[in-house]
Amino acid sequence: MTKTSFRAQLQQSLTPQSQLVAGSAELELDELLAATPAVETEDVVSISSAAALDFIKSLLQYDGAANKLLLLPATADTELTTALQQQAAALPAKEHTQWLLATSGTTGTPKLISHSLNSLTRQLQRNLTKGAELRWGLLYDPARFAGLQVVLQALCGGSALVIPEGESLTDQLQQLIDAKVNALSATPSLWRKLLMLPGLGKLPLRHITLGGESTDQQTLNALKQKFPQAKIRHIYASTEAGVGFSVADGLAGFPASWLDNKTRKPGPDSTLLLRSNEQEQWLDTGDLIEVTSDRVYFQGRLNGTINVGGNKLQPELIESFLLGQNGVADAHVYGQPNKMMGNLVAADVVLQSGHTKEAVFKAIREACRSQFEAWQCPALLRQVAEIETSAAGKKIRQQARTTE
Amino acid sequence: MMRDTILTLMNEAAETTGAELQPDINHDTVLLESGLDSLGFAILVARLEEELGYDPFSIMDEPVYPRTFGEFVAIYERFAPK
């Protein structure tokens, strides 16, 4: 079938530093390759990421041999697995092995997106001299788009890949510190959680990547302050589009000049439209954008609107405002169904230590009132210990409910 | 006691919506003249549900529309879990 398999790619990118660290196990990549022979098989092979090392071995064994590799997230239950397997079996075969990824689905049911190894690795950094100096930490599920990008970047870039074990973020961070990880990718939500952990400063970070959610200025600033030497970039990508772009100037959003009308343009609903080249159809990302004179800012999902008595609000607007308030470590804004207004704006807030709920909430109410309309201000403020994130590290956003 | 809880949260709802509450809210104050608008009342009822654990307007069989502050307090007292 395909000429360049994952094995073949890895063989080209080996450096003396190419290494896989999974929990306490350390594996040289060339030994892993030798110990994992290719397997001839057919049609759909399901690969679960519940055990990350086995997941990577399976990629090595079956890419180029199976028609379809169904990448199952660690959290997939029997019901979801069966549904995805049926979807996978129904897809027509292609020339190359298809890598089938489930959309992370901040809302709705996951669907499968078909990629090729080529499309997944097209944008990776291939400088093996630089790559050999990097040690990547994996905080995402490798069966998700963002996690797979980290795995492929580390392995195809000649770097080491460190896969922490265990559920607790504190434990995982300690393993990353012990393994001297210096390159790390996480969602802005996950970075905010990491920033609250006292140990984060011990990571010798040189490459910081944010992705999977829109990145706010406060989180960028906090990372810049903590890691002044690191290169910080935020990625915009959608599983559907396969590729996106990365921004490295330390500012939220991206330059307005990037809306070139060839591969990126605003759509009729003020969402971002993308395509990988001028021959292809435009893909509506569903991500709302605001275009100012020199910058484009993400404003949340088109279908994430909160409807308050007929007025529409993007939760991200209030969220980024709350993140800029003194004493606020993290915030999640959402619509709470209400008989009278359809929805009320509700906000869960994580406080920084040393701040009281009463003082911070009072200041938030006053600041919101001076900045926004009354219906836009959080009607319900709640203190929470942490903001819940999905398996993909994103804030869990429910489909906005309305009474229209 | 119930009256105090409601007054505290009325003040909070007024703060959130930027409304001016009438200076001396009492038993006979007409709700529509209290200073809170419909958003303010929606917030008040939602906050009371958070604090008290129930929303009388969603559990009552026949809809009752309180006219005065006194009637509003009475509804919350009547539906309080025994």
From TrEMBL, chain A:
The yes or no answer to whether the keyword Ligase is present is yes
Annotated AMP-binding enzyme C-terminal domain residues: 318-394
Q: What keywords were assigned to this record?
A: Ligase
Q: What processes does the entry annotate via GO biological process terms?
A: fatty acid metabolic process
Residue intervals of the AMP-dependent synthetase/ligase domain: 36-253
One GO MF term on file is: medium-chain fatty acid-CoA ligase activity
Statement: the UniProt record of this protein carries the keyword Ligase = yes
The Swiss-Prot or TrEMBL record describes its family as follows:
Belongs to the ATP-dependent AMP-binding enzyme family.
Protein name as it appears in the record: Acyl-CoA synthetase (AMP-forming)/AMP-acid ligase II
Q: What is the lineage of its organism?
A: Bacteria, Pseudomonadati, Pseudomonadota, Gammaproteobacteria, Alteromonadales
From TrEMBL, chain B:
Where is the Carrier domain positioned along the sequence? 1-80
PROSITE patterns annotated for this entry?
A: CARRIER (PS50075)
Pfam families listed in its UniProt record = PP-binding (PF00550)
| InterPro entries for the chain | ACP-like_sf (IPR036736), PP-bd_ACP (IPR009081)
Protein name (Swiss-Prot/TrEMBL): Phosphopantetheine attachment site
Organism listed in the record: Pseudidiomarina planktonica
